[in-house]
Task: inverse folding
């Protein structure tokens, strides 16, 4: 099970709005989507299941908050659930070339700047580390 990379308080600060009662669930769902998007290897704590590197932890937190903000203010969580991102839709004579992406553009930027969208080779002996190395 995915651990939320951000708390309700962090989301409130990030988005500068009061959090909905449902924000904890949205943060967990957004964290699942961020996990699916990240391609780089990073180390997580065996006790918290959160990234041990503070730069990576901040990028994951901010990307998660940006994803929830995108759902709340732009497209709705249903956009991800229905898998509607980047698709062409036609209804009668109305045609839309592209629906909004599933991953929020701002979330993708946070991940990109942190180098989390491209795989990075792992070096060293991870089996001797008390923390776990994971790829998402």
Result:
């Amino acid at each position: 099970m995915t651990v939320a990379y951000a708390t309700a308080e962090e989301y409130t600060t990030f988005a500068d709005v009061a959090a909905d009662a449902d924000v904890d669930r949205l943060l967990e769902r957004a964290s699942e989507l961020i996990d699916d998007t990240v391609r780089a290897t990073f180390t997580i704590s065996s006790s918290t299941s959160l990234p041990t590197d503070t730069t990576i932890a901040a990028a994951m937190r901010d990307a998660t908050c940006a994803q929830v903000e995108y759902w709340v203010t732009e497209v709705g969580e249903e956009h991800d659930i229905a898998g509607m991102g980047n698709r062409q839709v036609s209804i009668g004579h109305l045609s839309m070339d592209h629906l909004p992406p599933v991953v929020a553009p701002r979330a993708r930027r946070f991940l990109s700047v942190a180098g989390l969208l491209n795989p990075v080779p792992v070096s060293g002996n991870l089996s001797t580390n008390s923390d776990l190395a994971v790829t998402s």
In short: The mean pLDDT is 81. The first helix runs from residue 8 to 15. Helices lie at 8-15, 23-37, 54-75, 78-81, 105-113. DSSP finds five helices and four strands in the chain.
